[in-house]
Amino acid sequence: GNSVTQMEGPVTLSEEAFLTINCTYTATGYPSLFWYVQYPGEGLQLLLKATKADDKGSNKGFEATYRKETTSFHLEKGSVQVSDSAVYFCALTLTNTGNQFYFGTGTSLTVIP
Amino acid sequence: NAGVMQNPRHLVRRRGQEARLRCSPMKGHSHVYWYRQLPEEGLKFMVYLQKENIIDESGMPKERFSAEFPKEGPSILRIQQVVRGDSAAYFCASSPPNTGQYEQYFGPGTRLTVT
Questions:
Q1: Which of A4, A42, A102 is facing B108, going by the closest CB pair?
Q2: A4: chain B residues, CB-CB within 8 Å
Q3: Which of A55, A100, B79, B104 could form a disulfide with B45 if both were Cys (CB 3.0 to 4.6 A apart)?
Q4: How would you write the pLDDT of chain A (113 residues) with one tens digit per residue?
Q5: Are A108 and A21 in contact (CB under 8 A)?
């Protein structure tokens, strides 16, 4: 089937630390991969995406590379800020599933000054 | 361009009552999706609708839940005879037609509490 597994949180980092949130997937076809971010009390916002193998999505200092050989899409940021505190969701979609998204369980990140 | 709108943001219902959740997609978007987020879990797909059509309802519980997206007005997710297990955050997302981009734009969610 189709599913996304991401590392459990919560994750607490000091400001300017390096961030990695692991994400692996299983898919019945060729998926597009996404990271969404959810700030407290808000909906999900698209952070970045990649639609084919070896693509690198990037936005606001975050990046993730679509690795088909390891079925992974790990999120990284070189230097986190307090304002990055949020819940991060890895997700995939397939064209043959009516565009529904399959989400991971989310990883809560808290950045302390 | 206003984003996806959902109302109410918070809804409290007693067991056995009905819950109606509304979603107005972004302007120009004709595809609507509903997801449910249970505590400590990720979002789970429920239903995908286009104007006046249900395209995929494979994630909808077989009983008590229904969804519509009429020609005019918002999409409605309706839960009849709510039970405590229905307490969750319900998110609506929309996407434009035929873009091939697969991006979905999410609303702020409705948090349903069943007492």
A1: A42
A2: 42
A3: A100
A4: 889 999 888 999 999 999 999 999 999 888 999 999 999 878 889 999 998 999 999 999 999 999 999 999 999 999 999 999 999 999 998 866 556 889 999 999 999 99
A5: no
